[in-house]
Amino acid sequence: MTTTPPRIELSPQECRLFAHLKRCKQWQTARQIADATGVAPRTVQGHTKRLSACGLLERMETHPAPMFRFTAESAQADPAYVARIANACEAFGVEF
User: Fold this and answer.
1) CA 30-34-38 angle, 5° bins
2) Cα separation of the two ends of the chain
3) Of these four, 9, 23, 46, 76, which has the most CB atoms within 10 Å of its CB?
């Protein structure tokens, strides 16, 4: 069950971020995600905050910045949303 409703519309930036973390499987800061995906750091922060609140990303509080990762368990938090992201990635030409 999600604590924060997922977004109705999905952006190419959210798709790139989510697909990157799904492939990477390592803890990363918002800055590292931004560097790897070309998504603006502030945009990454907003998406990671929301996706971790929904349970779709794991969040670890570290200094100086929190870190995020996607796991198979994360996918079970909201399988329908993961399927929507996969479809949106296909539509935007983002490798999922």
Assistant:
1) 170
2) 24
3) 46
Contacts of 95 (CB under 8 A, 6+ apart): 19, 23, 89
Tell me the C-alpha distance between 89 and 83, whole Å.
10
Contacts of 42 (CB under 8 A, 6+ apart): none
Count of domains in the chain? Answer: 1
What's the CATH number where 17 sits? 1.10.10.10
Answer yes or no: are the C-beta atoms of 59 and 3 closer than 8 Å.
no
The verdict on residue 82 lying in a domain is yes
Pick from 86, 96, 95, 73: nearest CA to 10: 86
**What pLDDT, on the 0 to 100 scale, is given for residue 72?**
87
Q: Are 89 and 95 in contact (CB under 8 A)?
A: yes
